[in-house]
Amino acid sequence: MSSEFELIARHLAPGPAADAAGMSLGVGDDCALLAPTPGTRLAVSVDTSVADVHFPADAPASTIGHRALAVSLSDLAAMGAEARWCLMSLTLPEADDAWVADFAAGFHALCDASGVTLAGGDVTRGELAVGVTVMGEVPEGEALTRSGARPGEVIAVTGALGGGAGGLARWQAGERDPDDALLRRYLRPEPRLAAGLALRELASAAIDVSDGLLADLGHLCVASGVGAALTPEALPLAEGLVAALGDDDVMDAALRGGDDYELLVTLPEAHLAPARARLAAEGLALTAIGRVTDIPGVAGVADDGATGWQHFSGDTP
Amino acid sequence: MSSEFELIARHLAPGPAADAAGMSLGVGDDCALLAPTPGTRLAVSVDTSVADVHFPADAPASTIGHRALAVSLSDLAAMGAEARWCLMSLTLPEADDAWVADFAAGFHALCDASGVTLAGGDVTRGELAVGVTVMGEVPEGEALTRSGARPGEVIAVTGALGGGAGGLARWQAGERDPDDALLRRYLRPEPRLAAGLALRELASAAIDVSDGLLADLGHLCVASGVGAALTPEALPLAEGLVAALGDDDVMDAALRGGDDYELLVTLPEAHLAPARARLAAEGLALTAIGRVTDIPGVAGVADDGATGWQHFSGDTP
């Protein structure tokens, strides 16, 4: 790596909290050495976010850092795992110190808020892209998977839907106010880590809504060998969505919009009230939006063949 | 992800051996769930290889898959860690099924040869790049680090040097025979995992030679707070290097060429013979090339300011 890029890499060094986080050796050796907690399973996932595919290349650098980590942490949330460590691979076209400082600030702030320690990474030259590997822990046998849904259970979703699609629409319409509620949903999604932990013993299956509600519900149904009957009028809509998109597009954004990073779960009816109470303590709603059935497929919505959001580029993936 | 890319992703699914490798849940859920071995530390590292920066974009796809994994595994080797799992993030400009099948074959073959299980990954669209996160295990307190070198110890290197630079030169000269020894060194480097394990109790410090001998020796010396006196005429040269590069460039390739992925270690003199015996059992040489000193810097070579190889592009990183 050139010295120019080495300087850049210093922005990505782990903080002094690393020792306390079960990390005996971090950036600066060939590997980081981590101390997994006995009795837990290690949940691992990687997601790469590519400029102008998964996010606008000219978005504020701090939001690109936040968002790339949030997308990966959302997978830990969906497993009911406690976030512990991450590794980041940053590819960027030039060594722009100010940009990287801002990027790193957004990344580190979410690390701190989520209790995650950056354990290593690399910086390479190329088209702007951020790959984030996350590692979390979950007690043996307690992970939330996609395959546990059973007919008769309630389908529920945390928070609100359509914010990702609505925020993207606002960005594309020229909105740049970082405090705009919808834009914030798109650029700075909050991974539902606390909700995932709270739902561990109550939910029977979980997935995060990244590709769009219908698409991700479809993944969950296939993995569980079940079907679903949705109640579209029950879908919780992100604040400001009707004003931003108009009545005609709201339902499509909630059903097929991606990048919401809410948790979609199934749970026995009797677990709904206690689950709501736990999430209310986190300031988060849990809304029942349908039932698990034994008929394959998703009933209750028009089948126009479109499932899954097409991301920023209007193309996939 | 588009269905086109989902098809592609199937080439990267883990094999049936996954269950046996301490992996209770792999590709197909939000995270893979791994079972770390009690009493061990988890060694983790990530490296991203970008087309035409770290490897020629038109290299055979199987070698790109092999090489991206090898580069990351080399970091585990340098820690004395046993390779266990990996995650792969593949970014590619188009969904070319045949290319990905070949790429995956090279990747999976090295997984099998190294005892590594692919635990997850993603496929995204963009400029060709491969990010590989590796996870290995090492008994607590037995990891080889960069910081353990002590004055008076022997500096030694596994295998031979200059093969990376020599192979790249042959590629650039038009050589395309996959059995060409030097080209093979460049395109299909062999991570020294067995050597790392064998040297665990014998070496006091280790690093892999990725940036070039001088650069990596410099990293090790800084981390250990020591200096080094090299004996350049002792450097083991890759087979065919003189014929490929000519006398004038051979020493530069061995000292400053990168991508050799040999292990550079320091060890007490009394450990040299037993270390050689263990590596001989693996068919690998261990050559003494200098001494650790208490004078900062690397003595024994002309200081022309150039340290570290400039990778494929002739530019960095």
From TrEMBL, chains A, B:
<keyword id="KW-0460">Magnesium</keyword>
<feature type="binding site">
    <location>
        <position position="30"/>
    </location>
    <ligand>
        <name>Mg(2+) 4</name>
    </ligand>
</feature>
<dbReference type="InterPro" id="IPR006283">
    <property type="entry name" value="ThiL-like"/>
</dbReference>
<dbReference type="GO" id="GO:0016301">
    <property type="term" value="F:kinase activity"/>
</dbReference>
<feature type="binding site">
    <location>
        <position position="75"/>
    </location>
    <ligand>
        <name>Mg(2+) 4</name>
    </ligand>
</feature>
<protein>
    <recommendedName>
        <fullName>Thiamine-monophosphate kinase</fullName>
        <ecNumber>2.7.4.16</ecNumber>
    </recommendedName>
</protein>
<feature type="binding site">
    <location>
        <position position="211"/>
    </location>
    <ligand>
        <name>Mg(2+) 5</name>
    </ligand>
</feature>
<feature type="binding site">
    <location>
        <position position="54"/>
    </location>
    <ligand>
        <name>substrate</name>
    </ligand>
</feature>
<keyword id="KW-0784">Thiamine biosynthesis</keyword>
<keyword id="KW-0067">ATP-binding</keyword>
<feature type="binding site">
    <location>
        <position position="146"/>
    </location>
    <ligand>
        <name>ATP</name>
    </ligand>
</feature>
<feature type="binding site">
    <location>
        <position position="210"/>
    </location>
    <ligand>
        <name>ATP</name>
    </ligand>
</feature>
<comment type="function">
    <text>Catalyzes the ATP-dependent phosphorylation of thiamine-monophosphate (TMP) to form thiamine-pyrophosphate (TPP), the active form of vitamin B1.</text>
</comment>
<keyword id="KW-0808">Transferase</keyword>
<feature type="binding site">
    <location>
        <position position="309"/>
    </location>
    <ligand>
        <name>substrate</name>
    </ligand>
</feature>
<comment type="pathway">
    <text>Cofactor biosynthesis; thiamine diphosphate biosynthesis; thiamine diphosphate from thiamine phosphate: step 1/1.</text>
</comment>
<dbReference type="Pfam" id="PF00586">
    <property type="entry name" value="AIRS"/>
</dbReference>
<feature type="binding site">
    <location>
        <position position="30"/>
    </location>
    <ligand>
        <name>Mg(2+) 3</name>
    </ligand>
</feature>
<comment type="similarity">
    <text>Belongs to the thiamine-monophosphate kinase family.</text>
</comment>
<feature type="binding site">
    <location>
        <position position="47"/>
    </location>
    <ligand>
        <name>Mg(2+) 2</name>
    </ligand>
</feature>
<feature type="binding site">
    <location>
        <position position="122"/>
    </location>
    <ligand>
        <name>Mg(2+) 1</name>
    </ligand>
</feature>
<dbReference type="InterPro" id="IPR036921">
    <property type="entry name" value="PurM-like_N_sf"/>
</dbReference>
<feature type="binding site">
    <location>
        <position position="259"/>
    </location>
    <ligand>
        <name>substrate</name>
    </ligand>
</feature>
<dbReference type="InterPro" id="IPR010918">
    <property type="entry name" value="PurM-like_C_dom"/>
</dbReference>
<feature type="binding site">
    <location>
        <position position="47"/>
    </location>
    <ligand>
        <name>Mg(2+) 1</name>
    </ligand>
</feature>
<feature type="binding site">
    <location>
        <begin position="121"/>
        <end position="122"/>
    </location>
    <ligand>
        <name>ATP</name>
    </ligand>
</feature>
<dbReference type="InterPro" id="IPR036676">
    <property type="entry name" value="PurM-like_C_sf"/>
</dbReference>
<keyword id="KW-0479">Metal-binding</keyword>
<keyword id="KW-0547">Nucleotide-binding</keyword>
<feature type="binding site">
    <location>
        <position position="75"/>
    </location>
    <ligand>
        <name>Mg(2+) 2</name>
    </ligand>
</feature>
<feature type="binding site">
    <location>
        <position position="45"/>
    </location>
    <ligand>
        <name>Mg(2+) 4</name>
    </ligand>
</feature>
<dbReference type="InterPro" id="IPR016188">
    <property type="entry name" value="PurM-like_N"/>
</dbReference>
<keyword id="KW-0418">Kinase</keyword>
<dbReference type="Pfam" id="PF02769">
    <property type="entry name" value="AIRS_C"/>
</dbReference>
<feature type="binding site">
    <location>
        <position position="75"/>
    </location>
    <ligand>
        <name>Mg(2+) 3</name>
    </ligand>
</feature>
<feature type="domain" description="PurM-like C-terminal">
    <location>
        <begin position="150"/>
        <end position="298"/>
    </location>
</feature>
<feature type="binding site">
    <location>
        <position position="208"/>
    </location>
    <ligand>
        <name>Mg(2+) 3</name>
    </ligand>
</feature>
<feature type="domain" description="PurM-like N-terminal">
    <location>
        <begin position="28"/>
        <end position="138"/>
    </location>
</feature>
